[in-house]
Amino acid sequence: MTQLGTATIGALGNEVGVPQYDRTAVRPGIVHFGVGGFHRAHQAMYLDRLMNDGKALDWGICGIGVLPQDRRMADVLEAQDGLYTLVVKYPDGALEPRVIGSIVDYLFAPDDPEAVLARMTDPATRIVSLTITEGGYHVNQVTGELDASDPGLTADLAAGATPVSVFGFVIEALARRRTAGVPPFTVMSCDNIPGNGHVARKMLTSFARLKDPELADWIEREVRFPNSMVDRITPVTTDEDKAALAEKFGVEDGWPVVCEPFTQWVLEDDFGGERPPYEEVGVQLVADVEPYELMKLRLLNASHQALCYLGYLAGYRYAHEVCQDKLFVDFLLGYMDFEGAPTLPPVPGVHLDGYKRELIERFANPEVRDTLARLCAESSDRIPKWLVPVIREQLAAGREITRSALVVASWARYAEGTDEQGEPIEVVDRLRDKLVERAQHNRDDPLLFVSDRDLFGDLVDDERFVQAYTAALASLHERGARATLEALTG
């Protein structure tokens, strides 16, 4: 057994890929907020590829943690000199482990906020990237404006405050760079939000305007916020994953990452200064990300929501179980063919029918073991961004909404907190209490759940949606998820 670290990577077996570059020569050029599984399976992996080609050695990553739960990541990466193992899981059971070395520093912001700001104001930092989840941008779902009621934002708006939030750190660092005459860094959002660069720009600038209107004007003029589309299924690492890595490859890693073979990154080539040569390792640099982004959000992400609640209610617990069931596969393809895909613009270089069927194959990978509980979590940040726009466009065009309405109804049924066997469901959502309270009235007031205008806007006022939604909810209560799908698919 080999404890992962700089001194031991040379002792790992030939089956484990390791950095082929001198990590002591790597210098930080990117500050990243939100170092979780996805970032380590995706953006950090692409940089590691570049470094293995002898490039981008001045683009090392300095990770930043701002939340209490980020301390564990700080401790693991410190113990392992920033190294971790990325394990690709193939459908046939094969595992491909590789040690990633592109993260060269990690700062836990509550311990030393000034160290974080020093790193962010260093001229060598030319990109600040974000994977802070959909809710991390503080967008009011109905108005599209900044919701500044979050306690962290409120604290950071106080005069002379030491930053505690991602927004607080980004804006304070930009203010200091402006004062010092240092060019601003590019802010690169990598979250699953339509127009994520536009959203980051609008929300951060709105926050800055509450602190300093002149600074906000400068940010609008000078700071670049490229849009991006990112894709790789990355389930939560389990104790079994850690044990398999140790047993099969002799690597003791405190927090490895597991993922599917597929990976994609489409990135708008809109940077304020230098950037890594991402295109040399498979990143698609384009002028317009939106077609790819909408394809991914409305087909992959919305399909995850389409399978997770119904699958969980029917007794499944993993995505691959659902996608090995023809009834559910037919439902997912029906959603994609007749509701999701009609809302998409042409996607350059992509054959949509092939993409849709590839999604089913990816979801059905039995080795990834992506849990439905993970896909069901934080739905209030997902359904309004991924599925509600599909429903609105379909309604406006007079097209089908039956399947989308059923997905919303299945979320409402899931939020009741018990499955069809009477077993409790742990609803994980920042709005959990409100959602569960409303869902408890699904039988006596079936429109209460979707009357939350912060999540659904005026959908409750649309007669066609209401009819489809209430019929779906009633069927879920009376017949259950499986029988509801059988009736829908004929």
Automatic annotation (TrEMBL):
PROSITE patterns, A to Z: MANNITOL_DHGENASE (PS00974)
UniProt KW keywords: NAD, Oxidoreductase
Domain spans labelled Mannitol dehydrogenase N-terminal: 29-278
Cross-referenced InterPro entries: 6-PGluconate_DH-like_C_sf, 6PGD_dom2, Mannitol_DH, Mannitol_DH/Oxidoreductase, Mannitol_DH_C, Mannitol_DH_CS, Mannitol_DH_N, NAD(P)-bd_dom_sf
Example GO BP: mannitol metabolic process
Single GO MF descriptor: mannitol-1-phosphate 5-dehydrogenase activity
Enzyme's top EC category: oxidoreductase
Enzyme Commission number: 1.1.1.17
Reaction catalysis annotation: D-mannitol 1-phosphate + NAD(+) = beta-D-fructose 6-phosphate + NADH + H(+)
Domain Mannitol dehydrogenase C-terminal, first and last residues per copy: 288-476
Family affiliation: Belongs to the mannitol dehydrogenase family. UxuB subfamily.
UniProt protein name: Mannitol-1-phosphate 5-dehydrogenase
Phylogenetic classification of the source organism: Bacteria, Bacillati, Actinomycetota, Actinomycetes, Propionibacteriales
